[in-house]
Amino acid sequence: MKHQGTLKKGRVSVFGTLFMILCAALVILPLVWVLLTSFKSNQDFYMNVWGLPKKWMWENYARAWKRGSIGTTAVNSVIVTACSLALGLVCSTTTAYVLARFRFRLRGLLRGIYIAAIMVPSIISLIPQYFLLMNLKLLDSRLGLILIYGLSSVPFATFVLYGFFQTLPHEIEEAAMIDGAGYIKTFGKIMLPLAQPGIVTVLVINFIDFWNEYYKAMTYISTPGKMTIPVGLVVFAQQSQFRVDWGALMASNIILVIPAIVVYCLFQGSIQKGLTAGAVKG
Amino acid sequence: MRGAASPTERRRPALFRKDGLKMKGPQAQSARKLPNAWKVRSRFIALFTLPTFVLFAVFVLLPIVQGLYYSFFQWSGLSKDMQFIGFDNYVKLFHDPIAWRALGNDLKIALIRLAFTLILSLGTALILTRCRVPGNRFYRNVLFFPVMLSVVVICTIWMLLVNPSIGVVTRILSFFGIASPDAGWLGDYRTALYTTIPPAVWCSVGFYMIIFISAIESIPAELFESAKIDGVSHWSEMWDIVLPLLRPQINFCVIYVVISSMNGSYLFVKLLTDGGPNSSSQVLGTYMSLNGFNYHQFGYATAVAMLILAATLVLSTVLNRIFRSDAYEF
Asked: Residue A89: closest CA among chain B residues belongs to which residue?
């Protein structure tokens, strides 16, 4: 069947083009403004809020990295995000694979629990998880945050990967088993590489979640040396309530955004497809 | 092997089936030769599901149950001293005007977000597919990008844009004769709640736009061609062809925006107003942590959490009922 795709012929729609330019400006201009402000001195900021910087202050970034302690929080964020991604991935690929490819007694129940858990808003466990971490002596630690992030991501990731594993042909698995590969080898060497697009989708979705999450991190982490970037930024903004170092604050914002931009540029296609495909059937 | 099997028939290797041992075929034979093949299979299943499930149960499921449990106690959270008070927290919740206001605010935010998100994402999707716009790809990528951004960054920018003295939004509005309240849009009790909504819309329109675009692009070209031959106008094409075909996606959008707003608007409120001024922009999420971590009434706070859960479940059930639809088949 031929699909329409996007209109390529015909007159250029003036109204449509103008409207899209307006929308794009509404998205781009605030971000460009943050970028410009991150290079201004405080005086420059107050004198000329919306113009180009008079002098490009690269030292704002150095100051944000050191004094605003974005450096420490950036390292924490990388550790927490990477470990949570790994934990979430290991847990969800294994579970999704078994649920999708094997029939066993508690399969329906297990699948039901994970699907139901997708519906439960994560905020309601904020307080109980706080006391759970406290009892496990994991409060105010990166490990606690990693466990919470990684495991909270399991239901949705399993759901996405489950769909993926189900579409893979069974013949490949069969052939591997006949060739004498064990279950684990079949999974690791054959099925995982085949599920790669699904895994990329899950990794990207989780990356956005983990890298940007601030509410739980703010509640569970109190030592400045263990904070993640979003929390560090909130604290930085609060501390400087009366004498705001605008340049450094905006530089910190840019530092927080850069990884998101990089990931977006690298995986643009699969992000748009993956984020939306999981959502809609049809 | 079973070469004649139809492509729709589900085929699984013998060992992957419950009745694997009764199967014919090479795998089943090898399984019979190995008496512990079933043990290996069961062990594999256990290895791949059990550790995950145990961790998941401890860190995700248990806290949900515990939340329900805490909500029947009076508890400061500081000591082990918990006093069982039955449904008193829920009675108190029922008579708490701020809790009701917070619930109302959550619903207000959800509705306004829904209206703007739906109109903007549908509008941009239609323009980018049914009108000829140069640089089509560029607009899609730009509009989708805010989905990647942290709420913290979005709120920092928005706070400055509506700042009473330097904010550009404030200036533009006052240029059109809409004066900012003295304390700024975020500082006035009448406007604070509504001022938290634009950034939330800003960062989610692109997501729904992409959903709509991919749905419109999967509509067969023949439909548009025959409509064109019949001389159908642009508007009628949109109302009578495109929108009815987008029903499933629109339904999804309605449900998803409302639910994600109920479960996510506190992220914006916390940073922008922290529920203030004078609880005018309180939502359930912020009210819960306020009661817990500031007032040290963890029993009551978890009762608020249960209200969030109940509201979410009721809303999603109701919306699912109303918007349950049959997708059109091409």
From this structure: B52
